[in-house]
Amino acid sequence: MFDVWKNVLEELKQLIPHNDFNVWFKDVSLLSITDGVAIIEVPNVFKQKYIKEKYNNIIHDTLTHNSVVFTDIKYVISSHTTVKPRSREISFDSIKTSKSKELASSSKQHLFSSGLKPEYTMQNFVVASNNDFVVSVAWAMIKEPGKKYNPFFIYGGPGLGKTHLVQAIGNEMLRNNPGSKILYIPMNHFYSEFVKAIRQRKIDDFLNKYTGLDVLIIDDFQMIIGKDASQTQFFDIFNDMYQKGKQIIITCDRMPEQLKELDARLTTRLSWAGAYDIQMPNFEDRCAILRAKADFEGIEIEDEAIEFIANNNKTSIRDLEGEFRKIITYADFKKTTPLNIIKNGFLNSSNKLKNNLITPKKIIDVVSKYYNITPEELCSKSRVFNIKNARQVAMFLISEELGYSTTKSALEVGLKDHTTAMHGIKKIKSDLETDFTLRDQISTIREKLYE
Fold it and tell me: Of the segments 17-21, 52-56, 79-83, which one has the largest average pLDDT value?
């Protein structure tokens, strides 16, 4: 069975892009052929869902090509997957064991403080359609740091998992090479350290700390805007590390070219290896994130409860997980199920309350204000580009946030022809796939709706 699956994997390598293969087929194996069913073992629930949806046909054809006789394929989650106990079930012995492991690990690293949190791993970072490409690039970069993807620039709105991902990358690199010097630091801490070094006249010590690194991970890079001296210092550190073939990883809330007050030399360098975005997760992604989180932590929660939380938290993964945690905690306290907490109104979901306050009028008002036009102009028949664009965005949000039909969305903005609304909503959905500026605009508008 092993030899057959080995041959299947070799064929899949030729048919699937290299980075995608590394992401999706790591720790995936053919377990058995039982009653004509090919049992394929996967490490987690999201890989189970994603591989079945995207790669089932190609796996089917490759198995057939390798003379495997079967009638169906079934994807099962590995029984060897480690599930973390819930916090209240952690024993004193496990805490002592964990602490001793941490001490041993720190001694191996010569007491160098990486700033990385060990709980952030690539294994518990949920890959979904909103981030699968950036994760595939991350795995390629982990394999060969300082090579093709340097600098590795990740951008996206707040609460989408950028910090988790870059810390997980750092931890994976540290696991691969325990002796490497890896530093994770938010940009505002970098700035504070720089100012302190100037004040104490220890700028050489400051520079030595950074130029001696193997990997530098800077979070929230946009915080460098308006700090000219810090930009100059970072530019020098960047050049030194890059020339030595050391890896630089950066997160930001926007693309390099959108950082208007950034030194042009830095803007150019940050874009050398491209910029990779993490998008807002769709409903299915949010459900997958919550299900994976529940499975990883050993939490029992009904699918209906997961769908409720996913449907009522659309602004960020941070808010999504916060609402999940709140409902789970309250269910523990009441000694009941998460679904009972939701159905019986024991806990008012903050986002549900916010959703109840969102109306078509509020969406129209917020969109109008954002695009600097009046609500009357937005709801007029004007074909002026900025007004027409704002109208399409408003219809898109009315449809997405309130679940209105195309016809109803059209009427809310003064249109009688639902086909015009259908075209407008479809256009916004299509443009969001490639237009990063529009994506940022709608993300900002959504945040204002939920303020």
Answer: 52-56
| Closest C-alpha to 287, from 314, 249, 261 | 314
pLDDT of 434 > 50? The answer is yes
How far apart (Å, rounded) are the C-alpha atoms in residues 64 and 83? 34
Q: Is the pLDDT of residue 38 over 60?
A: yes
Dihedral sign of CA atoms 200, 202, 203, 206 in order: negative
**200-234 exposure pattern, b = at least 16 Cβ within 10 A, e = fewer:** eeeeeebbeebeebbbbbbbbbebbeebeebbebb
Angle at 207 between CA 210 and CA 180, to 5 degrees: 25
Residues 80-111: tens digit of each pLDDT? 444 333 333 333 343 334 444 444 444 444 44
Q: Range with the lowest mean pLDDT among 13-27, 93-107, 263-277, 414-428?
A: 93-107
pLDDT tens-digit profile of 201-247? 999 899 888 988 999 999 999 989 888 898 999 999 999 999 999 99
At residue 85, the pLDDT reads 37
58 neighbors 92 (Cβ within 8 angstroms):
no
Q: How far apart are CA 214 and CA 249, in angstroms?
A: 11
